[in-house]
Design brief:
Blueprint: E1 10-13, H1 17-28, E2 35-39, H2 54-57, H3 70-75, E3 78-82, E4 85-89, E5 94-97, E6 102-104, E7 107-110, H4 135-145, E8 150-154, H5 158-169, E9 173-178, H6 190-202, E10 206-209
Parallel strand pairs: 1-2, 1-7, 2-3, 8-9, 9-10
Antiparallel strand pairs: 4-5, 5-6
Length: 223
């Protein structure tokens, strides 16, 4: 930093891998101003890939998901804030949270990531219908798997197939429903997709391709 240059403050909305790495890289490159990292979750920044694998299987606890322990943020003077951003005042350079608090910035980084696309069909609000993106959702799924006998997965992407594999290992009968004609159609070749198809069918998972979901219905167990 040039001597005498003003010290700017940075607010980062989103504490996933991108948000965390932005904060860490700023400190590594000598940024001396205030860094505020805002997370919608009440948790330290953590890795998401293990949620559908080791964490879901109970082989990793929450601390093994952390990108860094809490002491790192203290040493690096990175302010971790939990809350939901409800407004950005670009003229005033201010971010407002649902609890009424506000944070001023010189530079604003939006690193909110993506949300699971929910189904627009009847029954999506039933008990036993889950999404998987956060550690809290993974913990709920892990608990549900302990008593479940059947699982239906909508979508044969990486997360869907990883969950299907874990569910099969736990003893569930698993059906995967995919609207396209093969798994992972947007990210791998047809030959690679066929390999994954054989792999999952060989493990006992039923794969339904070219099928859409029109409604979800509850059952007597409510799970």
């Amino acid at each position: 930093m040039t001597a005498g240059a003003p010290v700017s403050s940075v607010v980062i909305v989103g504490a996933g891998q991108a948000g965390y790495q932005t904060a860490a890289s700023l400190r590594e490159r000598g940024h001396a101003g205030r860094i505020t990292l805002i997370s919608a979750e009440d948790a330290l920044p953590y890795e998401r890939p293990p949620l559908s694998k080791a964490y879901l299987k109970g082989e990793a606890d929450e601390t093994r998901l952390w990108l860094r322990p809490v002491t790192y943020y203290v040493r690096q003077s990175i302010d971790l804030v939990g809350g939901t951003v409800t407004g950005i005042d670009r003229d005033a350079r201010r971010v407002r949270l649902a609890d009424g608090s506000a944070y001023d910035y010189d530079h604003l980084v939006l690193a909110t990531g993506a949300r699971p696309r929910t189904l627009d069909v009847p029954g999506v609000g039933l008990r036993g219908v889950h999404t998987l993106r956060t550690a809290q959702e993974a913990a709920a799924l892990r608990s549900a798997l302990a008593a479940a006998r059947h699982a239906v997965v909508v979508g044969a992407g990486f997360v869907g197939l990883e969950f299907a594999a874990v569910a099969r290992e736990s003893g569930c009968e698993v059906t995967v429903v995919e609207a396209l004609d093969r798994p992972l159609a947007r990210v791998v070749s047809a030959r690679t997709a066929e390999h994954f198809t054989r792999l999952h069918r060989g493990a006992g998972t039923q794969l339904l391709f070219g099928q859409g979901v029109t409604a979800l219905h509850g059952n007597s167990r409510g799970t």
